[in-house]
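Re: Re: ligand-bound prediction request (bumping)

Still looking for help on this. To restate: I need the protein modeled with pyridoxal-5'-phosphate bound, output as structure tokens. Inputs repeated here so nobody has to scroll up.
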Amino acid sequence: MPKTLIEPFRIKSVEPIRMTTRAERIELLEAAKLNVFKLRAEDVLIDWLTDSGTGAMSSRQWGAIMEGDESYAGARSFYRLEGVIQNITGMRFFVPTHQGRAAEKVLFTAVCKKGDVVPNNSHFDTTRANLEYLGIEALDLVIGEGLQPATIHPFKGNIDLQRVEALLKDRGAQIPFGMLTVTNNSGGGQPVSMANIRAYAGLLKKYGKPFIMDVCRFSENAMFIKMRESGYANTPIKTIVQEMFSYADGATMSAKKDGMVNIGGFIVLRSEEWMDAVRNVLIMTEGFPTYGGLAGRDLEALAIGLEEGMQEDYLRYRLRTAEYLGERLEAAGVDFVKPTGGHAVYIDARTVLPNMPMQHYPAWALCNALYLEGGIRGVEIGSVMFGKRLPNGTETYHSMELVRLAFPRRMYTQSHFDYAGEVIAEVKEKADSIRGVKITKQSQFLRHFTCECAWV
Ligand SMILES: *Cc1c(COP(=O)(O)O)cnc(C)c1O
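Reply:
Sorry for the wait, this slipped through. Here it is.
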């Protein structure tokens, strides 16, 4: 048997990408205030900023786009998607939203109140921001291994059940529900085991708390369970997915991830009472409950995308891509979160730039260096994203300084990954010449998206 795991698709439509010179990239980055979010996408060669909504749809999805029912209320496309989601999740009540953060905002507004506290393995940045905006504390309780980039563990996304139980005992009255993010995006795209999902659900149930999953990457998580957790090697992905959902009382999803579409999200719940509260908020901000901020054609594409995202040959190739780049980095002596996650590779910037002080934001600096060296755009997951400037002018720093290279689904081929491996190795060679930044302008929430920086 040949060992190479090939892309399980062929290309039907192509989109050119453009190389720039280093001199051009220096100018472009400075014009972007040293913030890669402010670059024009056409000035990026390989865009690994995010896997969110950036993937390629299949010819079947494009075909279904024409079948979209654009009726305001009761569209056929809604019922088709509802059927698919009910089948996958086993939950009865579903509404679409325009993307994941809208699902979060609507759900939290409907069922939480100021002073609440919500535990999670790691809150994604929009999840945290939406909770904090409502005056709710977002607590990250991932297991210790999940915070150690070099430690190998099959399920680094697991939540620390002891700390969860202590929280339930101490502050139970303040907890509206427990959350769990599969896979754990902020913690390195690391999976959560079925055993952990089951035990966490059991614990929440014991204390009478609902269990809400953030299921942006439920299919990738299911594939990790199949490959790594005993007892699942011969279980079909969909069966694993259905078991994962069977423990939860509800879920929020950004369909821009494992939904295999460019826009969309949803909320799914078991409780009719909660869904009534959700619908009231949804109508005010997203739209009527049968379209929730999306077009009928988006609902059609999602109905197919959710099923395509669970195909095993696709998932095998998907997880292998990240692992493959990891092998290139290992060979170049660049440290990263191990083992590689589902949708991305997270470079540990502190080991590439060991001498750079935290105030110069090492992961942000490395991100800029990858663009300057090879036109690659990644994203900082470190102290610009998760640190805060306090009223007294001092800063808090994040526990890790990572650069995430996130891979759009079904888009880049093996040679793109080979090229990236070479660029990263080159940057590592030149580490001493990489410059840090200071933030010159920032907003109160999610500052990384819009902040302006200058070289230190
Ligand atoms: C992307 C993401 C979200 C937010 O979804 P958007 O569609 O970007 O609004 C929430 N949680 C996790 C884990 C995510 O990866």
